[in-house]
Please model this.
Amino acid sequence: MRKMQIYIAIVCFLALIAGATSCNTNSQDENNTEPPHYDRIEVHSLAELNEMRSMIDCDDPDELKEYLLRVHGDTLDGTPISKEDLVYFVSRVDKLPYVNLLEGEIVWIHYLCGKSKDTGLPVDVIELSIQANNGDWVSIDYLFSENDVEGRINAMKAEAKHENLISTPLYSQDGKVVFHIETREENPSGSGDIIRWFAEIDGIFTSIRYCTSNANNVDTAALVSDLKISNIPSQATSE
Model:
C-alpha cells in the first residue's frame, strides 16, 4: 500500500514541480498559436473568473493595468501577466470538460504550464477544486501533457494490483467518463477519508482526490454512471 501511495503522490503533485523552461506541449488554442509565457495563473471562485472575462473586454488601459497587477499568477521570465495570458487561460477553462462530482462551489481553478524539474517532460495541467457546505471537497487534475493515456493507466493498474477497488472500468452513460483506479484511506489529518481516482474525462488523463467525512457514503459506480460532461458554470449555485 505504501508503494502505491508514493506512486499516486508523484502523479497527483506533478503539477507542483514545474521548472524554469517554457511550456512545450501539444496544447494549443483555437488559433493554433503557442501558449503564452506564464507558468501559473489561477482564480479562486467563479466570481473571479467572471471578473477576468470582463477585464478581457475592458477598454480602459489604466483599469486593465491595475487588474493585471493583482492577477494570481507567475511568469517564467518574470514579466507581468498580460491580457493575452488572460485570453488564453479563459479559453482553456471554457473548453474544459467539466463533471459535477460534488454539489458545492468552485473555489480554485489553477493552470500550470512548464516542464518537470525531475524528468524534463512537459507539464500542462488544470486543477479544479470544489467545496461543499459540509466541508467535503474534491480536486480534479486534468493532465493534458499525458499523451499515452492508455499506457499510463495500464502501468498504474499493474502497480496498484489488489489495492485497486475497481475490478473493471466504470463508465458514465455516454461513455465519455471512465474511472479505472480507486483507492481509499483515512485522511492523514485524522478527519474523514480520502478517495483517490484515476480516470479519463473526455479522453484526458485525470487524477481526482475526494475528501469526505465518510467514504462509506460514496457509491463510486452510481456516481460515475450519473456523470455528464458540461461546461464550467457561469455563476455560483444557489444554496
